[in-house]
Design goal:
The chain has 415 residues and is an alpha/beta fold. The protein contains 17 helices and 9 strands. Strands 4-3-5-8-9 form a 5-stranded parallel β-sheet, with helices on both faces. Strands 1-2 form a two-stranded antiparallel ribbon. The radius of gyration is 28 Å and the shape is elongated.
Length: 415
């Protein structure tokens, strides 16, 4: 079998088209390994005898099929790109191979122009050219939160310190939550558990406030942590500060696209500059920065059912020893009744799908909480603040923590 040696321009064409396929896979956050293996096979196809070339190209197509089967519709972009590359590479070495590849690239260019025109006619710009990081956005505003450059975070054993806590007290309230209860963004004295302790009388209080906050905790994690408290008793109140992390269980957010910008910042800067002139680049930039948020009615239903089960388990654990169970639905950026200019700008730094996903599940979470007589709906806790307390879409400064503590203090029965 005679070896067909392609010209260097043919090999270069196959490599370039294959690299474009891999780039499409990276931008879409898809199975990058499939694109890489396909590229290797397709490049090798240009250096083999004609019959073997077809076998190798078919192998690359098989990888595309496997990617489709494994990843479903999420790999569609990579499959289309890899399939096009397979067809192009199979033709490289033929007299008209380069013309066919060129024709396909022209078609791709026409389609991109059509897409650009369609996007300009059907949607407004996402404003990617004006995007900046949340940290830079906060620095340029005087109507946002008070930031602590280096917060003092102290632990007493496994728990975040509650300042002004009495050494001993006849009553105790255990606060279980995620990062918004841990409050690592503020000093020990600025956490809402510490502020609640002061509202109850500080070191002279009959109540001892304990901060059991752990970052990323869902209601299910908190129920498990509650069962591990050895001395829980009838003098205790168990408060679950819930909502944000439990809403997160109802959607998935792909991080792969954002990794591209973090690893290749110049690429992000280039696409951001292009977004000023191209609606396609505008959309690609937002995809790269925010990733992809996906949710569904089934995902929300499963998340609410899991949430309901976790609350029931926590209530049962508290009731079994005579303690009182109090679930509190926490506020976040998207629950503000009248968002300020700062908050509208902050919300614009997130994918619109994030706010939609969180708002879609919150009514279901509250519906699961309403069966508990002591449940508190704290979604409006921040509405009395003129200047925004939000550092991001759910963490707040000390003023926000004060609003939460005040809201809870006014609504709980302190017997």
């Amino acid at each position: 079998m005679k070896l067909t040696a392609p010209r260097s321009v043919d090999v270069a064409t196959a490599v370039v088209v294959g690299a474009l396929a891999v780039a499409v896979g990276m931008v879409c956050g898809l199975a990058i390994i499939d694109g890489v293996v396909s590229l290797v096979l397709l490049t090798a196809a240009t250096l083999t005898p004609r019959r073997v070339r077809y076998v190798v190209a078919l192998g690359a197509c098989a990888i595309v099929v496997m990617a489709l089967v494994r990843g479903g519709s999420t790999t569609l972009g990579l499959c289309v790109a890899s399939a096009s590359t397979a067809a192009a590479a199979a033709l490289v070495g033929r007299p008209r191979g380069r013309r066919i590849v060129l024709a396909n690239l022209v078609v791709l260019g026409v389609l991109l122009v059509a897409l650009e025109v369609g996007l300009r006619l059907s949607s407004a710009s996402a404003g990617s050219s004006g995007y900046q990081s949340i940290e830079l956005y906060r620095q340029g505003r005087d109507d946002g939160p008070d930031e602590v450059a280096a917060p003092i975070v102290t632990y007493d054993g496994a728990l975040r310190r509650t300042v002004d806590q009495p050494v001993t007290a006849p009553r105790r309230i255990l606060l279980f939550g995620g990062s918004t209860t841990l409050c690592a963004e503020v000093d020990d004295a600025g956490t809402w558990p510490s502020i609640l302790q002061r509202l109850l009388g500080g070191a002279a209080s009959r109540w001892r406030v304990e901060n059991h906050g752990v970052s990323a905790m869902t209601a299910a994690n908190r129920a498990e942590a509650l069962r591990s408290v050895p001395d829980l008793g009838p003098a205790d109140v168990v408060l679950f500060f819930v909502g944000v992390n439990d809403a997160g269980a109802s959607f998935t957010q792909r991080e792969n696209p954002a990794v591209v910008v973090r690893e290749i910042p110049r690429l992000g800067t280039l696409i951001q500059r292009l977004s000023e002139h191209s609606r396609i680049a505008d959309g690609v930039f937002r995809l790269l920065v925010f990733g992809g948020v996906r949710t569904s009615a089934d995902a929300r239903r499963e998340a609410v059912e899991s949430f309901r089960d976790a609350l029931a388990a926590a209530d049962a654990a508290a009731t079994a020893v005579g303690a009182r169970f109090v679930p509190v639905l926490q506020p976040h950026l998207f629950t503000r009744a009248t968002p300020s200019d700062y908050e509208q700008g902050l919300a614009a730094l997130y994918s619109p799908a994030l706010g939609d996903a969180v708002e879609a599940i919150y009514p279901g979470l509250w519906d699961a909480m309403r069966r508990y007589p002591a449940a508190i709906d704290a979604r409006a806790a921040m509405d009395g603040l003129t200047r925004s307390p939000y550092l991001d879409w759910h963490h707040v400064d000390e003023r926000g923590n004060t609003a939460i503590a005040q809201f809870v203090w006014e609504r709980l029965e302190w017997d």
